Amino acid sequence: ERDALRAELGGLAQALTDARTEAAERFAAAVTAELASLAMPHARVSFEIRQTEDPEGVEVGGRTVAYGPSGADE
């Protein structure tokens, strides 16, 4: 049962990572567009969603990463 729960946790962590990555891309595009309208056409905003390797962590996307109450992302 423990292995099944860890697998489920990994799947949920991956779904959360995917949602955060998509939201970060949308937000960066919106802020970049707003900066262009403020006469800053070369300004760009970007976000990096990353994880820390941890042998005691949970498997997410083929990697074993640290996790906590807010997921596996930093």
Explain this structure to me?
This protein has one helix at 2-37, and strands at residues 53-60, 63-65. It is α+β, with helices and mostly antiparallel strands. It has one domain (2-65). Strands 1-2 form a two-stranded antiparallel sheet. The relative contact order is 0.20.
Please write out the topology:
Blueprint: H1 2-37, E1 53-60, E2 63-65
Structural class: alpha+beta
> How far is it from the N-terminal to the C-terminal residue, by CA?
28 Å
Approximately what portion of the residues adopt beta-strand conformation? 5-15%
What low-confidence regions span 5 or more consecutive residues with pLDDT below 50? none
Count of helical stretches: 1
What is the N-to-C order of secondary-structure elements (H for helix, E for strand)? HEE
Q: What is the tally of beta strands?
A: 2
The shape is elongated
**Into how many domains do the coordinates divide?**
1
Rg calc: 16 Å
Q: How helix-rich are the residues, as a percent range?
A: 40-55%
> Main β-sheet: number of strands, strand sense, barrel status?
2 strands, antiparallel
* Cross-sheet strand order for the largest sheet: 1-2
The average pLDDT is: 96
Keywords:
74 residues; two-stranded antiparallel ribbon; 2 strands; 15% strand; elongated
Task: Describe, in short, the structure shown.
The protein is built from 1 helix and 2 strands; from the N terminus they run αββ. By secondary structure, it is an alpha+beta fold.
